[in-house]
């Protein structure tokens, strides 16, 4: 039997399983659609119905848990952003613009390490792999990069204060 036909035979069971593990029918339908798409694209899908059935259930399960993980990470990120914003006394647009302008003035290699560690949230070891350097190099570069960013920001802040005093 053709693979498409085998998957069509399994559709009612796949929908039932997806509905059982999802919070809504719409999410279950999306999950089944994604699983079928993945199943049809895969070169390694089983050829026999009795092997395809559990394989498709695993695809649905894995896709579901991947989505739950994504949502959790997004929630944690949003909560952290809110916490940092609240600690800073709410959004400070002027300060954000100042920091972005200061960031753009830094050399590319300095921006790279700041982006990977402070913006993207990579661990030092992960950033070291990306940049193909030892961990210690990342640690020293991030330290120098943070200092350079602060120097640029403090310099801009000092210049702003000077302009304010003169007017």
UniProtKB/TrEMBL annotation:
A GO term, aspect molecular function: sigma factor activity
Keyword terms, alphabetized: Plasmid, Sigma factor, Transcription, Transcription regulation
Domain RNA polymerase sigma factor 70 region 4 type: 98-149
GO BP terms: DNA-templated transcription initiation
Glycoprotein keyword on record: no
InterPro entries: RNA_pol_sigma-70-like, RNA_pol_sigma-70_dom, RNA_pol_sigma70_r2, RNA_pol_sigma70_r4_t2, RNA_pol_sigma_r2, RNA_pol_sigma_r3/r4-like, WH-like_DNA-bd_sf
Entries under Pfam families matching the protein: Sigma70_r2, Sigma70_r4_2
Occurrences of domain RNA polymerase sigma-70 region (ranges): 6-72
Keyword Disulfide bond among UniProt keywords: no
Record-linked CDD domains: Sigma70_r4
Family per record: Belongs to the sigma-70 factor family. ECF subfamily.
Descriptive protein name: ECF RNA polymerase sigma factor EcfG
The encoding gene: ecfG_4
């Amino acid at each position: 039997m053709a693979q498409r036909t085998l998957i069509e035979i399994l559709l009612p069971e796949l929908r039932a399983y997806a509905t059982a593990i999802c919070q809504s029918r719409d999410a279950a339908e999306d999950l089944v659609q994604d699983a079928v798409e993945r199943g049809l694209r895969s070169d390694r899908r089983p050829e026999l119905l009795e092997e395809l059935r559990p394989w498709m259930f695993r695809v649905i399960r894995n896709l579901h848990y991947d989505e739950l993980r994504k949502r959790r990470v997004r929630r944690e990120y949003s909560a952290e952003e809110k916490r940092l914003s609240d600690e800073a006394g709410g959004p400070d647009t002027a300060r954000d613009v100042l920091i972005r302008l200061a960031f753009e003035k830094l050399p590319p290699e300095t921006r790279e390490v700041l982006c990977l560690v402070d913006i993207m949230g990579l661990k030092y070891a992960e950033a070291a792999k990306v940049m193909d350097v030892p961990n210690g190099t990342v640690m020293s570069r991030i330290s120098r990069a943070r200092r350079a960013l602060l120097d640029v920001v403090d310099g801009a802040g000092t210049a702003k204060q000077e302009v304010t005093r003169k007017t």
